[in-house]
Amino acid sequence: MKTHLIQLSGILSMLLLTSFAFGQQKINFQLLDSDQQFPIVGVSYSYGSQSGISDAEGRLSLKWEEKTILYLNHVSYGRWFLSPEKILDAAKTGFSYRKETTIGLQPVSVISIKMTDEKDKKIVLSDQERLHHDAGAILMLNPVVSGIRKGSNFAFDPVMRGFKYDQLNVVINGIQTANAACPNRMDPPTSQVALNRIQQVEILKGPHALRYGIGLGGTINYIPEKPNFGSNPGTYGQISSLYESNGNIWRNEGRVGFQGSNYDIGVLGSYSSGSDYQAGNGEMIPGNFKRGTVGIYGDLQVSKRDLLQVSLNRNFARDVDFPSLAMDLRTDDTWMGSVFHTRTIEGQRLVSWTNSAYFTRVDHLMDNLLRDLNPRMVNASTPAITQNWGLRTEGTWTFEQGKLYAGIDHRSESAEGSRTREMLMGPMAGRVFTDNVWQDSNIQKTGLFANYMFTLGSSTLNASTRLEVNQAQALDPAEEFIQLNPDTKNTQINPGISLGWQHSLGKAWSLGVWAASVQRSGSLLERYINFLPVGLDPWEMVGDPQINPETNNQIDLVMGFEKEKVFAEVTLFGSYLTNYISSVKTDLNPRLPSSPGVRRFVNLDEALKAGVEVSFRHQIIPNLSHSLDLAYTYGEDLGLDAPLPEIAPLDVRYRMMGQFVAGKLQTGLNFRFVSQQNRVSEVFGEGKTPGFNLIDWDISYPLFTNLLLKGGIQNILDETYYEHLTRPIGMNKTPMYSPGRNFFLMLSFKFP
Question: Fewer beta carbons within 10 angstroms: which end of the chain, N or C?
Fold first, then answer.
């Protein structure tokens, strides 16, 4: 017995000595990029009483502190932490990996809309990953973005913080865009995005993302999937189909790809259709539409350092109802192509150089021939074409504690089209009138930009700038337009600058401040539209080629809190606008007898927009979590001391999410509250709108390894409601109600 006690005391003594020695031990490991495997240099860290920066090889040397979390921060990799267990794992292997991300450096929301292969191979499909025939609709999963609706099932035109149309910069992969050929924006840029290969959407709030162009109120960037190279040649693909009961809507999409060690190529397609739907009060709303896409893509690793990426899509729409407008969309045919070449450079400050080009051509026809008018006074149609092309070259430099993006881009936008009116009754029966609505106008934009981000202790600094030359002209101006605007050419220079500072306030809190002053020239619509009703009210609109650029001076204040199970963020913003582009009534004679008059685009002296946004996430227990998001914007015309038009009301979203049956069964209950909007513009005849409450429920389960089943109910309470930004129907301004109760069912098959 005595022998055993001696042995036991010896063992305990050794353990105590080992523990003491380990407590004094140095922990050494290297931080590596998870994709490229290169060292992450200049990572700021805080570890108990210790702090510092990773060295030139990305190495950390720490004195072990038991039960202490290691907090890390880098300009290109964001903020993250390592638990004591992960620190020990890193010390044992000698490495810790982190994926590059820059989305935390400015006010931004990210919507994930694609199924991803997680490490544990679980299939997780959220609301945001449903099939959509319109990429604008998915933006409204976030209350920060609302949408102008002129059609009941198509063309959701995004509005962010009260900024709309060309005040927002909508791009695919940071460069490609489209212009609405329809003057009434039946085909906004978001409607032309094929979602098959889109992995996520960045909603960059405010004018800070100057790297991608001038977004006076924000930038929306649709980011495609990265190349999926495989060690062995193989085939992959997926096909998904969704049915909605209210409106008899079918949505379908699929793709097939072929991959190898240096290639990832494939074909994709989608097709959706729907008909009239029923509102909560039983009223039938016109909602016919047909929408489809076919396309090809290819990612080729042509050498160890050179990546070539190409894509070509063909979009089409047919016979789409727009009950709030005088005409419907009959045909919309679009070609979109892009090519990217990226060279990776080793051993230098310049780590990569990307050259890209794109083109977009939209061929659009709207008319009133689908309308059952009795009697029909006139046959009207407007065929129009817009064309966009652009070039971009950008370099990326890395330094010990910073990263620089810099380059040059060029965009070309052009529009042509005329309205034809055939008179059917009255003294002018048989006569045909042609109105030159776009005047073969074009805008050329050439920009020089730079974005520098660097860490300084526990702070991250972000400086962006852009200088853009904007040249506009009309090649075929109408006579009545020249009488009003003798000079149809104009060249303007638009500077922009944004400064951001993000600081870590201890282990959980962070504070960010962004300030920007950005200038934007008028769009094709604001400069060259020729006597056409395209605004909030039925007045005809006429452009001004010499309209001054509008300037947004904005500040964003972001307070964040993050622990292992809790994330919270509050954003306050204020925007002071000068030369704000709006419109006023004139004494000009309208072209249509049904129009009450003519408005002209002008600059307002001053305007103000301010608001608050809140985002909260909490993991209650391992299989249950919930989230809360809200957004509110206040807009004021300081000259008239009156509300600005088309400002969405307070929007609150709450979601409870559960994972059961070993994480396979996913379910969520959504609650949405929207307040009434009483702050409306009487100058534009904007009406007040009531508030509403919505409850949705969804559930998903993988029937087999590669087959997912999802279903649910939208608007469970069958609420009769309409969004504030939805345009009313007809001269009586009848509300265009949103769908009542709607059941949906989706199947998604993925292989291999």
Answer: N
Alpha-carbon span 113 to 469, nearest angstrom = 35
CA-closest candidate to residue 451, choices 107, 217, 106: 106
Residue closest to 446 by CA, chosen among 509, 349, 521, 378: 521
Helix (H, G, I), strand (E, B) or coil at 4: helix
Transcribe 252-271 into DSSP letters. Answer: EEEEEEEE-SSEEEEEEEEE
Alpha carbon distance 589, 275 (integer Å) = 38
Please check whether residue 251 is in contact with residue 242, taking contact to mean a CB–CB distance below 8 angstroms: yes
C-alpha closest to that of 470 among 440, 496, 493, 488: 493
Query: Token digits for 53?
Result: 């920066």
Q: Which residues contact 402 (CB under 8 A, 6 or more apart)?
A: 42, 75, 452, 453, 454, 455
The closest of 298, 139, 109 to 205, measured between CA atoms, is 109
What is the rounded distance in angstroms from the CA atom of residue 319 to the CA atom of residue 290? 7
CA distance 699 to 710: 6
* CA separation for the pair 356, 339 (Å, rounded): 6
What's the per-residue H, E or C state across 570-635? EEEEEEEEEEEEEEEECCCCCCCCCCCCEEEEEEEEEEEEEEEEEEEEEEEECCEEEEEEEEEEEE
Rounded Cα distance, 737 and 279, in Å: 6
Which residues does 582 contact at the CB level (< 8 Å), separation at least 6? 601, 602, 603, 604, 637
Q: Which two tokens stand for residue 107?
A: 């006010």
Residue 531 CA: distances (Å) to CA of 441, 534, 585, 587: 15, 9, 13, 13
Q: The tokens 């709309």 sit on which residue?
A: 164
Residue pLDDT, tens place only, 538-593: 899 999 999 999 999 999 999 999 888 899 999 999 999 999 999 999 999 998 88
Strand 163-164, strand 156-160: pairing: antiparallel
| Amino acid at site 144 | V
Alpha-carbon distance 121 to 118, whole Å? 5
Exposed/middle/buried for 383, CB within 10 Å: 0-12, 13-18, 19+? Answer: middle
Lowest-confidence pick of 25-39, 141-155, 484-498, 632-646 = 25-39
DSSP letter for 689, please.
B
Give the model's pLDDT for residue 135: 87
Check residue 113 and give its pLDDT.
59
Point out which residues pair with 339 in neighbouring strands.
310, 357
Q: Which two tokens stand for residue 383?
A: 């065929």
Distance of CA 338 to the CA centre of its chain: 19
- Going through 622-688 in order, the beta strands assigned E by DSSP cover 624-637, 642-643, 651-660, 665-674
Please report which helix (H) or strand (E) contains residue 317, including its range.
Answer: strand 306-320
Q: So what's the pLDDT on residue 162?
A: 95
Average pLDDT over residues 312-340: 96
Residue 480's H or E segment, with its range, is helix 479-484
Residue 84 has pLDDT above 90, yes or no: no
Residue 13 predicted with pLDDT over 60 = no
Distances (CA, A) of 513 to 209, 496, 502: 14, 17, 6
pLDDT reading at 454 higher than 50: yes
Fill in the amino acid letter for 676.
Answer: Q
pLDDT for 522-536, tens place per residue? 999 999 999 999 988
Digit-coded pLDDT (tens) for 370-415: 888 778 889 999 999 999 999 999 999 988 888 999 999 999 999 9
Q: Which pLDDT score, from 0 to 100, does residue 125 have?
A: 35
Beta bridge pairs of residue 451: 405, 464
Residue 42 φ/ψ region, left for φ over 0, alpha for ψ in the -120 to 50 degree band, beta for the rest? left
Per-position b or e across 406-428, b if 16+ CB within 10 A of its CB: bbebbbbbbbbbbbebeeeeeee
Phi, psi of 262 (to 5 degrees): -135, 20
The whole-number average pLDDT for the span 601-630 is 95
Q: Give dist(CA 55, CA 71) in Å, integer.
A: 16
